[in-house]
Amino acid sequence: MTNPAFYPIGTPGRPWGDAEVVAWRSLQRVQRSYAAEVASVIEALRARFDVAEYGRLDYPSGSYPLFAIRSRGWRDELPVVLVTGGVHGYETSGVHGALQFVERHAADYAGRANLLVVPCVSPWGYERIHRWNPDALDPNRSFREHSPVQESAALMRLVAPWRERVQVHIDLHETTDSDESEFRPALAARDGKPYEPGTIPDGFYLCADSAKPQPAFQQAVIAAVAKVTHIAPADPDGTIIGSPVVAHGVIEYDCRKLGLCAGITDASYRTTTEVYPDSPRATPEQCNTAQAAAVCAAIDYALAHESV
């Protein structure tokens, strides 16, 4: 009997070596353009914001500039807000939700907060609609000292000067049907482990940092997003993606232990959004708007509850 979940690369029970990574990489195809869909939008924002190239990814398949958008008129006495998107390049609304926030809402915080927005941490993954980088490594498990992942290391270098001053960090993600159809089976194959099927929640949820969960902050973000799209219910066992639901639409991870992006600063208020773009109840526009609404709610809560 064949195993329908067996991934077509590698040998069951044996972690991938270099040959398997090369075979996997050869299957990845460019499906959309970072330059046309992301970099061009960032370029248009230069008239209103400071845009800097904070690094460059150089891979045999191409070179990708990495961009950060900053508030014009940065003031050291103001709190710093970090917004990151596209850590997993395939998670579309993370990228375009961050850009929508800058285009439509960032000006509202002029003189109130310093904004640092990185819309697309992983452009190679964005173009190929993939979770990993070309080395079959997950950037969002690689935010650690001496990270072997270029995408993660570059972002950590960018943020380092403000790490202790960041008040809010919101990292924009998606949970998609392809997590179960492609990415989790690939992960199991890569690591030589059996694939264990999971469930995909229908709706938006948040992953708080268990080291600093800030439950009232998380619920403020959930309440704002609920005006845009539906919030994911818990599974019958009281979990979302296998983690206990600690409040409406909220689970928790130990971000630094897992090497997650949300753990790269000492921000008092930090969270990871998860939008579900494959829901029949949500459109791409709703998904982008939900991400932007989450960012606004996070900043608004922090400004209302922290004295500068």
Structure description:
- This protein is an alpha/beta fold.
- The chain has a single domain, classed as Zn peptidases (Aminopeptidase), CATH 3.40.630.
- The protein contains nine helices and ten strands.
- The chain has an eight-stranded mixed beta sheet, sandwiched between helices. It has a two-stranded antiparallel sheet with strand order 7-8.
- Helix 3 (92-104) crosses helix 9 (284-305) and helix 7 packs antiparallel against helix 9 (284-305).
Strand segment tally: 10
* Class per helix and strand makeup: alpha/beta
Largest sheet: 8 strands, mixed
Low-confidence stretches: none
CATH top-level class: Alpha Beta
What is the H-and-E element order? HHEEEHEHHEHEHEEEHEH
* Overall geometry: globular
Number of helices: 9
Instruction: Examine the coordinates and then state which fold CATH places here, giving the name of the CATH topology.
Output: Aminopeptidase
- In what range is the share of β-strand residues? 15-25%
- Widest sheet: strand ordering: 1-2-4-3-5-10-6-9
Query: Please, what is the average pLDDT?
Result: 96
Provide the CATH superfamily.
Zn peptidases
Number of domains: 1
Q: Give the termini separation.
A: 64 Å
**CATH second-level architecture:** 3-Layer(aba) Sandwich
Radius of gyration: 19 Å
The helix fraction, in percent, is: 25-40%
Protein name: Peptidase
Family: Belongs to the peptidase M14 family.
Domain Peptidase M14: 30-308
InterPro entries: AstE_AspA_cat (IPR055438), Peptidase_M14 (IPR000834)
